[in-house]
Amino acid sequence: MSFAALRRWRRSSSARFALLFLLLFGSTSAALFGFVYARSIAYFNAQTDEWLVRETGRVMRPDTDRATALERVAAHNAHDVSHLRTFALFDPAGRHVAGDLLDLPRGLATDVPIELVATTRGGPAPLRLMVRRLANGDRFVASQDLRQTRSFAAELVGAMIQAGAAMLLLGLAGALALAAAQERRIRRLARSLQQIMAGKLGARLATSSRRDELDDFAAEVNRTLDELQRLMLEVKSTGDNIAHDMRTPLTRLLANLQRANTQDAQPAQMADSISEAVDEVQGMIAMFNALLRIAEIDEGARRTGFRAIDLARVVGDVADFHEVAAIERGITIARAMPEHLPFEGDADLLFEAVGNLLDNAVKYTPDGGSILIRLADGPVLSVSDTGPGIPAGEQSRVTQRFHRVEASRQLPGNGLGLALVAAIARLHRLDFRIGGGPGCVATLAPA
Amino acid sequence: MPRILVVEDDSKSAEAIASVLRDEGMAVTLSDNGAQAFLLARAGAFDGIVLDRMLPGGIDGIGVLDMLRDAEIMTPVLILSALSALEERVRGLRAGGDDYLAKPFEPIELAARVTALVRRRRNEGSATMLDAGRVRIDLIARQAAVDGAAIDLQPRELQLLEYLARRPDRPVTRAMIFEDIWGYRYDPRTNVIDVHITRLRRKIERADAPPLIETLRGTGYVFRGTQALAP
Predict the structure, then answer these.
(1) In whole numbers, what is the pLDDT of chain B averaged over residues?
(2) Sequence-separated (6 or more) residues with CB below 8 Å from residue A206
(3) Would the CB atoms of A293 and B218 count as touching at under 8 Å?
(4) Of the candidates A25, A136, A134, A22, which has an alpha carbon nearest to the alpha carbon of residue A87?
(5) Mean of the per-residue pLDDT values for chain A?
(6) Which 24-53 residues of chain B touch chain A by CB within 8 A?
(7) Total domains present in chain A
(8) pLDDT for residue A99 is more than 70
(9) Which architecture, in CATH terms, is B3-123?
(10) To which H or E segment does residue A236 belong?
C-alpha cells in the first residue's frame, strides 16, 4: 500500500466512517466485556462467601473444643478430595495444628471473607478465606482455593482480547475495503466526467443496481448532463443554422449589390437590385430579431407585460386578422370558443403565438381546405387544419429553433416561428405540442 | 418645418437618424446627453423628440422623459431602445413616451413614426367628416365614398381606409398599421396586412383612375388620393 493511497484513505469519508464505527463498536464491546468480567468474578466471590459464612457458622461454634475441631477439619478435608475448599486450625500462638493451609498471618480480621496468597500443602496459592476465633483461643479457617477461578478469569480475558483483536483487524480491513470500493466508484465517476469534459458529450455516469445515495447523485448528474447536452446541441445547431441560413441571403445580397455597382447598370435595374438587396437584409434582420426575441422570452423578462386579459378576444382578433388571407384561398376558418376567457398573460405575445400557428395553418392548408380554432377552459387552445400535417417523427422537433420539415424548405420562413410559439407558451406555463395526422393539430395547454 | 430634437449618444447613429429626418423635411437638433437634452427641450419649442433609452451620465432616456413630463412639457416623444430590453418598452410608455421603436430599426419606419408623432395632435379633431380629396368618409354614419361614389366597406376596411386617408402622402409601415388598427404590438412578418390592403384596394380603386394606395416595396403604403380627379 503506497503512502499516497494511505493519505487518500485518511481523507476518504467512508474510511473515516468505518473507523469511527469500529472505534465505537470496540469501546462498546470493551465496556460490555468489563461488565461481564466484573459480574462473573462477583458471582464467584458471592458463591464462595456464602459457603464460607455457612461453613464457619455451622461447623464451628465458638465454644467448640480443640478435639471436636480437629475431628471436623480432618473429616472435611478427607472428604474434599480436590483440595479446593479446605479447613484448617491454628493454635492461639498462630502455629499450624491441622488442615491444608500451613501458615496464617497474624492479626487477620475474623468473620469476614479475605483474599490473600498463603502457603498450602500444594504450595503457595491465592485463597479466599474466613477466620473464626474459637473460645479457647484457636483460630479456625475455611478457605477456597482461587487458582481455578483465576485461571478461568485469565482464560476469559485472553479469549476476549483475541476476539477483540480479530474484530479490530476484520473491521479495519472492512473499512479499508469499503473505502477502496467507494474510492473506485468515485474514481470511475470522475473518469466519466473527465471524458465528458474532454468532449465525449454522450458519456454518462455509471449507476449500480444498489440505488444508494451515490447512484441517486449520479442519476441527478446524468439528468443535468442530458439537459446540458440538449442545450449544447441546440446552441451548436443554432450556430450552424445561422451560418447556413445566412449564406444564401448574403450571397444574393452580394450579387445584387455587385449588379447595382456595374458601370452600365440602368437606373431601373439598379433600383431593382437595391430593393432586392433591401429585402435580403430585412429577412436577415427579421431572423436575428426572432432569435433575440426567443432568447428574451426564454429569460422570462417579458413577464412584466403580464396582465389580466381576455384570451377569447385575443384569439378572436387573431382569427379576424388572418381570415382574409384564408378567404383569398378558399379556406374556411371555423371557431369553437367561449365568448370570454379570462387569462393572465401578455396579449401581444399571445397574439403573436396564435398568429404564427394560424399563419402556418393557412400557409400549409391547400386551397379550399378548412381550419378549426378551438378554445376552452384551461386554457386549451388548438389549431387544426386539413394540410399535409407533420410526419410523426418530426412533430416534437419542429418546436426547436431552425428546424424545418424537409418538404417546407422552399416556402418562405426562417424555421423560427414554432420555436417562438414554444418560447411564448413556456413563458405562460403552457405546453406546446404538435400532433395530428392527417392534417396538423397544434395545441397549447397547461403544462 | 417640424423641429425635432434627437437625443442619441452614438454620433454615427445620431447622424443617420438626423439625415433620415432631414430627408422628410424636418429641422433636426442633436444632443448627446440627458441633461443637455432636457434643457434644450425645455427651452426650444420642438414638435417631437427622438430619445435613446440608454444615455451616458446620470440621466438616461427615461430620466429625461420623467423630467420633461414633471415640467409639464408634453412634446411627443419616441423612445429608441435596444431589442434585448423589451420590458423597457412597458416602462418607457408608462413614463409618458408616445411611441417606441426597437433597435435595429429601418430608417423608413423611424421616419414614418416621427412624422405620425408630429402630426398626431393636429389630426385627430372632432370633425364628423374626413375629406381626403378623392376619398370622403362620414365618420358618424361610417360610410365612405370614393370619387363621389359610395363604397360598401367592412368595418375593418373602413378603419384601414380612414387610417391611410388621415396620413396622405406619408408612408405608413405595416407595423404601424398593425399596431394602430389591430391594437397589438409586434412586427408581424406575414403578408396578411398586404392581403387586407389588396382587398381594400379592390373595392376602392378603378382601372381607369390612378391608384389611391401605393405600395412601398417591403415596407408599407402611401395614400395618394388628395388630388381630386379632373372631370
Answers:
(1) 84
(2) A188, A189, A192, A218
(3) no
(4) A134
(5) 84
(6) none
(7) 3
(8) yes
(9) 3-Layer(aba) Sandwich (3.40)
(10) helix A213-261
Residue A288: closest CA among chain B residues belongs to which residue? B104
Q: Are A257 and A352 members of one domain?
A: no
| Architecture of the domain spanning B129-223 | Orthogonal Bundle (1.10)
**Contact check, Cβ <8 Å, A321/B192:** yes
d(CA A262, nearest CA chain B) in Å? 23
Identify whether A395 is part of a domain: yes
Q: Give the burial class of A409: count Cβ atoms within 10 A of its Cβ; 0-12 exposed, 13-18 middle, 19 or more buried.
A: exposed
Residues on chain A touching B196 (C-beta within 8 angstroms):
324
Q: What is the pTM of this model?
A: 0.61
Chain A contact for B185, CB < 8 A? yes
Q: Does B105 touch chain A (CB under 8 A)?
A: no
> Measured between alpha carbons, how far is B92 from B82 in angstroms, rounded to an integer?
12
Pick B195's closest partner by Cβ from A304, A324, A347. A324
Structural Rg of chain B based on CA atoms: 19
Which residues from chain A sit within 8 angstroms of residue B180, using beta carbons? none
CATH number of A251's domain: 1.10.287.130
Residue matched to cell numbers 475495503? A177
Residue whose C-alpha is closest to residue B103's, from B16, B192, B194, B4: B16
Please state whether beta strands A123-133 and B143-146 pair in parallel, antiparallel, or not at all (unpaired): unpaired
Residue B208 vs residue A315, higher pLDDT: A315
Cross-chain CB nearest to A286 (options B84, B189, B191):
B189
SS3 state of residue A375: strand
Which pLDDT does position A409 carry in this prediction? 46
pLDDT tens by residue, A140-150: 888 888 888 88
Of B83, B191, B199, the CB nearest to A292: B83
C-alpha–C-alpha distance, residues B83 and B104, integer Å: 7
A348 contacts B184? CB cut-off 8 A: yes
Taking an 8 Å cut-off on Cβ atoms, the answer to whether B86 and A355 are in contact is no
Give the pLDDT confidence of B173-188 residue by residue, as tens digits.
888 899 889 988 777 7
The span from the first CA to the last CA of chain A, in angstroms, equals 56
What is the grid cell recorded at A406? 424537409
Q: Answer with the residue of higher pLDDT: A40 or A244.
A: A40
Could you write out the three-class secondary structure of A322-360? Answer: HHHHHHHCCCEEEEECCCCCEEEECHHHHHHHHHHHHHH
Q: Which residue range forms the structural domain that includes residue A409?
A: 301-446
- A396 and A290 fall within a common domain: no
pLDDT digits 0-9 by tens, A355-395:
999 998 998 899 999 999 999 998 999 999 988 877 777 77
Cβ distance of B192 and A322 shorter than 8 Å: yes
Q: What cell does A7 get?
A: 493519505
Compute the C-alpha angle A280/A281/A287, nearest 5°: 95
ipTM over 0.90? The verdict is: no
**pLDDT digit string (tens) for A60-93?**
777 888 888 888 888 888 888 777 888 888 888 8
Per CB-CB distance under 8 Å, the chain A contacts of B84 are 292, 295-296
